[in-house]
Amino acid sequence: MRWVICLAWYFSAAVQAAEPMQAALDELQPSSLTATEQRAELQWFVEAAKPFQGVQVRVIAERIATHWYEANVLAPMFSQLTGIRVIHEISGEDDVVNKLRAQQQTGLPLYDAYVSDSDLLGQHFRDNQVLVLSDFIQGEGASVSLPSLDLDDFIGLPFVTAPDGKLYQLPDQQFANLYWYRQDWFARPELRQAFRERYGYELDVPQNWTAYEDIAAFFSEQVREIDGQRVYGHMDYGAFDPSLGWRISDAWLGMAGVADLGSPNGLPVDDWGIRVEGCQPAGASMARGGALDSPAAVYALQRYIDWLKRYAPPEAQRMTFNQAGNVAAQGQVAQQIFWYTAFTSDYTQPDSAMVDDEGKPKWRVAPSPRGAYWREGMKSGYQDVGAWTLLKATPLKQRQAAWLYAQFVVSKSVSLRKTLVGLTPIRRSDLNSPALLAAAPKLGGLIEFYRSPAAQRWTPTGANVPDYSGMANLWWRHLYPAVSGQLRVGQAMHNLATAFDQHLQQVGQRQRHACAPKLNPPREPAYWLQQGAAPWPQLSDERPAGRTLPYEEALRAWD
After folding, report:
1. Taking Cα atoms as reference points, which of 301, 338, 339, 333 lies closest to residue 315?
2. Helix axes 468-483, 489-510, angle to 10 degrees
3. CATH tag, 2-174+384-459
4. What end-to-end distance do the CA atoms of the chain give, in Å?
5. Which residue, 462, 493, 474, 500, is CA-closest to 288?
6. Taking Cα atoms as reference points, which of 556, 466, 475, 461 lies closest to residue 513?
7. Distance CA 162, CA 135 (A)
8. 0.85 cut: is pTM over it?
9. Cis bond before residue 517 (omega within 30° of 0)
10. What's the CA gap between 492 and 478, in Å, rounded?
């Protein structure tokens, strides 16, 4: 938080010392635009905002570094430039989702815009409440749509474009779940020799869950201490909290191999275990043809629980997403199977235990290892796309003013500087800029990931989930009893799948859309297990031989 406060103070002082345009230009360096282009783009916002002088817009986003920068630096900057007052609220992700849901259900004008995940896309294009941006830009929003917005420059545009081909959200930030590890520890000759002697293969980037588990056990149970400090081979979180649901829903099952083959999430069964017939969700339980209570799903949750309890620091079991995010930055964790790149900035600070004397990272990111049920052609990993979302019911003037602000914080004048602060890139022009390429050696492989084709293969939840805001809460409430040891894993997954089926049926009854849920009739799970696709039958060996690859070879998976 110290850097956010300092930046806010710096900008406030700059505004007092110089006129708003020059203060903005000084702050928003570097940019992918030339100086002339950048000034012209900022001037467009000044002119477009003239009909909205004195208008106040209220927006909300989740609690990550990128949004703190927007709230503390970009919002006051935009207000100084345009005369539109912006209240940019920061809250927890679950609170953002719930407030959006409350506004849709009650019609109360809580916010004029939300930065909410593209995971809600399946809900947005079915419920007819979210503003269709591609239509808005051509219609009522034409006069306030930035000529240089350049939608094709956004790397996450496919993730906010619905099956109907229309744009429902505008990407604001992106971060992926990748494998993270201490390259400096993995390179130590004595550790490499000890691992080879014990497990029979090299201490390198794990390619499957067996290797990941071996490495976790090695550091937690055999090595135990490095340079006088207790160390662990795994890090995760398991508190009774909405973020527990994200941990599993955000592709833990997908990486285990629960879904079918097919891009972006598996067809016809996706990585939430939901079967879709055409575009209609048809069930999540095996009885309905889904895979949420399948052997692969049970395997996935069991591994998550076993590793959390055996190999992670004991306090991890009581942590949430935000509490656990920078724990590895403290220097006691050897690897994380799914590390959220939203926390990259915490791992690059000069005083961090994660950088060497030259400011270079001691860590690297690579493709995450896959579970025993995973096979080529399945979903490769999860990517979060926080995106601007406006509602049709918001009064036109408020919508237009909020749309101006949304475009400002993702414009080419702003986006490169914002990317360097929050490290959640959204534009190709920024990824190809000299500034970001120069920063790449200090970011442990993050830029290499986003410049590769893998940036399109690590996908959000997708359009199969017809009511994300309602169904997301089912995950953590039904899974925590298994995580806490109160319930068997198989029973917890069955309970969750049953709750999903019930919810899908309710949604199907109220949604008036051609792609509304329509459940398959129940039948014996054995029928579906014999179809040669998801739900997959139980493997005779869920722990194949461990396999690792040197870092450079592991990265080839991204190409």
Report:
1. 333
2. 170
3. 3.40.190.10
4. 36
5. 500
6. 466
7. 13
8. yes
9. no
10. 6
**What's the CA gap between 215 and 202, in Å, rounded?**
10
Residue reference for tokens 């995106």: 387
Among all chains, which residue has been given the structure tokens 């406060």?
Answer: 5
Residue 260 · residue 483 · CB < 8 Å: no
Coil/strand/helix, residue 334? coil
CA–CA separation, 462 and 243 (whole Å):
18
CA distances from 57 to 133, 314, 408 (A): 18, 44, 14
Q: Give the separation between CA 93 and CA 45, rounded to whole angstroms.
A: 29
The length of the chain is: 559
Q: What is the pLDDT of residues 340-371, one digit of tens each?
A: 898 898 899 888 899 998 889 999 999 999 99
- What confidence tens digit (pLDDT) does each residue in 27-68 have? 999 999 999 999 999 999 999 999 999 999 999 999 999 999
Q: Quick one: DSSP state of residue 354?
A: T
Which token pair is 467?
Answer: 């009511």
Q: Which residues of the chain are modeled with pLDDT < 70?
A: 1-18
Q: Where are the domains of the chain?
A: 2-174+384-459, 176-230+327-375+544-558
**Two tokens, residue 475:** 């995950």
Cβ pair 370, 208 in contact under 8 A: yes
